Amino acid sequence: xxxxxxxxxxxxxxxxxxxxxxxxxxxxxxxxxxxxxxxxxxxxxxxxxxxxxxxxxxxxxxxxxxxxxxxxxxxxxxxxxxxxxxxxxxxxxxxxxxxxxxxxxxxxxxxxxxxxxxxxxxxxxxxxxxxxxxxxxxxxxxxxxxxxxxxxxxxxxxxxxxxxxxxxxxxxxxxxxxxxxxxxxxxxxxxxxxxxxxxxxxxxxxxxxxxxxxxxxxxxxxxxxxxxxxxxxxxxxxxxxxxxxxxxxxxxxxxxxxxxxxxxxxxxxxxxx
Length: 273
Prior knowledge:
The structure is a single chain. The chain is an alpha/beta fold. It has a single domain (26-272), classed as Glycerol-3-phosphate (1)-acyltransferase (3-Layer(aba) Sandwich), CATH 3.40.1130. It is 39% helix and 11% strand. Strands 1-7-6-2-5-3-4 form a seven-stranded mixed β-sheet, sandwiched between helices. Helix 4 links the parallel strand 3 (95-99) and strand 4 (123-125).
């Protein structure tokens, strides 16, 4: 049976990858997560990751704040493509995250290399299914967390191009409230300078990855409550800001509405974010 979107999942949360090809049913996805491509991961963790840390010398703070076992949500600010490499490289345990299926669909040597890379760093392609891509991604994320994994997510939804911290969407909070998993906030610094948008190769400078203390959001209410999701999201974003030191933007990180229809749609769904 194809994964179905949870009716409580906010339809407008787009911090996760867009829908596309991947394992095509729940059993296949569970098996994918359980197997986890251990060979590729172990190669990356015990050879590539130490070499990268030696060369780039990232400053890692608070690794002990990440629970060694059990489900946990790692919620981070998002400045660069390299963020999805920096977090798994610096975390004390394997971190899973969803990635656009296009990263797994390339052909030829380049496509193979891309698949190997994303599999090695813990990425899982989004499952194709009915409903909106965001709901499918949230449902997929929920099952990954419930399987006892550490799962990374960017509440802002997409990279900040001006260095400010944007308003969080409620998907990460929904996942925390629905699964009961603690949230470990992460503050990334200088990853946007390390690999600027459009750059073909990284610069040699030190980035900082700081893991904050786990946050228990269960006292805020049920996942079905829009108020609880918003309160939980704001608490997560405050914790991220305390670590990253970024200026709050006070708005969502999205392009201006293209037309009147899009402007009205955003107004109608604003309370669900």
